[in-house]
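Before any further analysis, we paired sequence with structure tokens, yielding the entry below:
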Amino acid sequence: MTRIAIIGGHGKVALKLSRLLSDKGHEVASFIRNPQHSDDVAATGATPSVFDVEKSTTAEIAAALSGRDAVVWSAGAGGGNPARTYAVDRDAAIRSMDAAAEAGVGRYVMVSYVGSRKDHGVPPENSFFHYAEAKAAADEYLRGTSLAWTMLAPGTLTEGPGSGLIEVIEHGAPGSTATSRANVALVAAAVLERPETAGRTIRFRDGSVPVDEALGN
């Protein structure tokens, strides 16, 4: 059994992931900001932990992560407010990485998106620009840490079924990038059990290859 913390535990991907992990016998603590979401989290088998990562210091996050074997970042500001986007998707994410290292949690899985990179190409006048900037900065910081990190970069998220079939792609690959949240959760659960995926950025979309095969068996 592995003790896993999910930051952003009420998100759609996170709820699916916590159920998958709990069903596999892992001990899951899901950090949520709103106490009214506790019942939804508990229904997945995870333990809800009311904790506002946006307003917490590195030391406070480290204390919350103490004793965990792995952390999954699946939080986000949700867009719309540039200041809060940077506060959560960049600054709080970076603090969580420092906190994981401080707490001795070596394994870190970041849920990002397929276009995340420094040269993301989103123009400043686009409403998505601030999110793209924040994610690029956080992802770049994670790659420079000593954590055993894996970056998940799915395409456009959908409510499609969790087929367990994906395609690993390169940045800018032609065609649809539709990726079901259920498949993102399946990939996250898989990489948590595969330490050899540390140091990899995995860009993917829904496809025709079983997750285990796509990740390299």
Summary: The first helix runs from residue 12 to 23. The domain at 3-214 is CATH 3.40.50.720 (Rossmann fold). The chain has seven helices and eleven strands. The chain has a mean pLDDT of 95.
